[in-house]
Amino acid sequence: MGARFTVFRSIKHTKNQFIAQPISIKIPQWRGEEREMVDNKNITERSILLVDNEKLIRNSFGRELREEGFAVTTIANGSEAIDELEKKRYDLVITDLMMPGVDGFGVLKAVKKRFPQTAVIVLASYGDMQSVTDALHLGADDFTLKPCDVDELVFRIRRCLERQRLLQMLAIQGQP
């Protein structure tokens, strides 16, 4: 028993043309290890690790995200974040790129090495687009520029978590 959905993936048709190929996926009833990989928690019940060396940003974003229903752990630097990732898996990591010591790039690499399916949103200073591009090439799922609006950050979080959920369902179905 389960639900059936159709999603689309882009495939290259000719040199410069892409077409949308429909993929029908069946969402199974969960059992055993599949339940651990993709569960039925609401998106707002997901765990978030927030890494920023600026206390004001950690406290304000942490408070706002908790009010939205997310389970948020705040960390002040990259090395503490990497230590925390050794203890617990998070659904999403938000990291500032520019921090003393282990920077956001180090956090991003550690997350993607240990938990490749974990979504990462990077926070970058205005005008630092080369760093954002580098972070995206290293596997960051999204970015926002600081200072950013909490509503925009929540939108990006939900979008990343929904994308993560869909990719996990496709993986269960054995789709490429």
Keywords:
176 residues, alpha/beta, 5-stranded parallel sheet, two-stranded antiparallel ribbon, disordered N terminus
Structure overview:
With 176 residues, this protein is α/β, with parallel strands linked by helices. Helices cover 41% and strands 28% of the residues. It contains six helices and seven strands; from the N terminus they run ββαβαβαβαβαβα. It has a five-stranded parallel beta sheet, sandwiched between helices. Strands 1-2 form a two-stranded antiparallel ribbon. The protein is globular, with a radius of gyration of 17 Å.
> If helices are DSSP runs of H or I spanning 4 or more residues, what is the number of helices?
6
The count of strands amounts to 7
* SSE-based structural type: alpha/beta
Determine the N-to-C terminus distance. 23 Å
Summarize the structure.
The protein is α/β, with parallel strands linked by helices and 176 residues long. It has six helices and seven strands.
Secondary-structure blueprint:
Layout: E1 2-12, E2 18-28, H1 32-37, E3 47-51, H2 55-67, E4 71-75, H3 78-87, E5 92-96, H4 104-114, E6 119-125, H5 129-137, E7 142-146, H6 150-173
Parallel strand pairs: 3-4, 3-5, 5-6, 6-7
Antiparallel strand pairs: 1-2
Helix pairs in contact: 3-4
